[in-house]
Amino acid sequence: MDTNVLYYGDNLEILRKYIPDESIDLIYLDPPFNSKATYNVLFKEPTGKPSQAQISAFEDTWHWGLEAERALQEIAASPIASAEVKEFMSVLPKLVGKRTDMAAYLTMMCIRLIELRRVLKDTGSIYLHCDPTASHYLKLLMDTIFGTANFRNEIIWYFTSGGGRPTRWFSKKHQILLYYTKSDDYYYYGLAVGDKRTTDEGTFGGYFRTDQDGRRYQEVRAAGRIYKYYVDEPKNPDDVWTVKNIPQRDLTERLPYPTQKPEALLERIIKANSRKKMIILDPFCGCGTALVVAHRLERKWIGIDITHLAISTMKWRLEEAFPGIEYKVIGEPKDLAGAVELANQNKYQFQWWAVSLIGGQPYGDKKKGADTGIDGYLYYMDEKDKIKKAIISVKGGGTSVKDIRDLGHVIDREKSDIGIFILLEKPTRPMIEEAAMKGFYHSPLGKDYPRIQIITIEEIFQGKSPDIPPWIAPITKPVPLKRVEGKTKRLL
Fold it and tell me: Which residue, among 211, 253, 250, has the nearest Cα to 233 in the 3D structure?
């Protein structure tokens, strides 16, 4: 089994195809919480302002339909699902409302949790991150799949920021971690993340004393025994974790990813339930916080996500945090045949992937509203304090000279100086001639750039990139400008 690998695809299929039985030491999953919400990636403009482009990276459309019906049937016939799980799932959809969004959500989670139990070692642990939207249902599901005897904690992650200022209910400032193990013989070392004991006499109750070495300690009586606690030693943490959420203005950790969790939170989990070289799995890895922390702590890791936007974000983040890092990406097109296959499978994922290949930022909700002719932007700056954007259009097949004319109209409408047309097929001679007729953009830097540039996926694989002024990365952080091969770039 490969480790230090990112998988693009449905985690159910990936788990079944690539992850062997009892091979994982620790699982952390942070799935979508609310089946009525869209799981979006919200980018920011390079200026730092929120982008008007809202990307439906992974639409949480777990509504009741053929997929949920099929999953329910698979659970009933599964050779690895216990009789208790099958019985529970025959009743649960009726309890929450047959064919409701919540029933679909829990069914789709159940079939994945069954696979996660299969791949977890007998000594392994699993943390399911959730919120009150469905935590009570998920707790029942976890009890049934992993066993009530293997429930260890309901951990409250309390964050001091956020929550708003409601007037008709209490401010919501916590989320929940459901912590289970595969068996009673599991790895746990909570002292690795323990807090030092306080010297405040009112904290623990009882009196503090000093031993013969001059160390302060406290004696606590419980169950007929006397326990001795030194004030300067770590203590096993309790189940309420006060870990600050990432401030919006944090320029060291914050990414433009709405469900990002703080690294400090994942560090607690990974330190407590794994040692170096153990394998960490995150099947909904999003922007990759669990993977980054696992790598920093010298653990092996596996990440899975269903969107190319998430995979692109994780690749950038890993390479930014660990220059020279070696890892694999499985499921992402590596050649023209793979690109064609992705375009045939899902044209939206193909468009997002193609935009990311040239360092662009995907634009718009592809499944709602009229087609604007814009699939992404490539930001650049050739005048002081003036950020500009080249418009990207992507086509997976069936291109003609009309597409070039349409892109020309779009850049005129948007008052953009440059349009980039990415396509799978080789452009025809009329397409090339139509693009040339659009002329050049004369940059204040003194160089002319073709207003419409045609580039194929095959050319990008061969190392070709758009010819534009100094460009700015879509994930904006305050990194310095650097001179590379005669061009000034803001590096990813």
Answer: 211
